[in-house]
Amino acid sequence: MKKDFYEVLGVQKGASADEIKAAYRKIALKNHPDKNPGNKEAEDKLKEANEAYEVLSDPKKKQMYDQFGHAGMGAAPPGAGGYGGFEGFGDFGDFSSVGDIFGDFIGDIFGGGGRRRSSRSARGADLRYDLELTLEQAAKGAEIPIDASRHEICSECNGSGAKPGTSTKVCPKCKGQGQVRFNQGFFSFAQTCPQCGGQGKVISSPCTVCRGTGQKKSSQSIKVRIPAGVDEGTSLRVAGAGDVPPKGGTPGDLYVVISLKEHPHFKRERDNLHTELKLNFPEAVFGGDFEVPAIDGKIKLKIPAGTQPGTVFRVRNEGFPHLGKRGKGDLLVKANVEVPKVLNEEQKAALRDFARASGIKENDSSNIFKKMFGG
After folding, report:
1. I want to staple 174 with a disulfide (CB 3.0 to 4.6 A). Which of 181, 186, 193, 279 is the partner?
2. pTM of this prediction?
3. Whole-angstrom Cα distance, residue 167 to residue 155?
4. Residues 90, 66 share a domain
């Protein structure tokens, strides 16, 4: 039996057109014959993916498939493409229906063979910078200076990669085209020239500074604006602060990934903050107004008489700011009633009087005397 097309591409039935396209692209890149010569398993997987994408990328065919499954595909009229045109490897049926996706990634496999990629300017690599913040910095926002390294155009050779006073030469293998062509089934493909790496030129005398790469590493000082409310794992994009391509073009981006230091008083849960308030026995019994830590300083919290150990009090809008929105989370204060481990005689007498007034018998092995006085 044929596999479910959604299962073949690894997407859910309600997947969008972009998700279907991205899933197909990933499979096609991984299993293309140029990367898997003579691999029958990769060939079969690519055939399955071609077949699935041919149907799921076409709204009418997709609707028929969603309603009737594989049986609905057999009813396609002549010339509709169906999905029966996948008899041999490399036969994509109606090629125009998958040509758009090949335009996106054919250059990834063959070094610029796709029509779309050929018109795109070079773009530098994106970079990552890990930044650790205090909880207060994350809550209030900040402007943090960082020193991030990146590759820039080599000033010695101006990005050519060739030693000053020398020049590059036309690649003898591709004759300056940057590609070599070969046939696969019904199609002719362009592959990145293995000798020049797609540049069309070769360097006989590499630059001594960049060793022929056309780039050198340098440090850049940047001020990163941290918005109030960022959380662990938040990624902030600094446009144009990534690597600069050696031949010129668009620099990549820098992604600043946030991590948070542990705090002595608070635990964060989404936009709520958790803390504890230590109370002794009389304080828990009589209650009162107490100072508790908050992210912006200290606040007063009214503790009612008779508060039990573990009681949690919610203070509205004293938590973390909602990132990109108005308002804050809450501060959750847990009452932690401390029981003294050692009592003097006066304290013991007072507690005995309290116990008797409460109707607790001294000879009750489960009572407070057994627990506090050892018998």
Report:
1. 193
2. 0.54
3. 16
4. yes
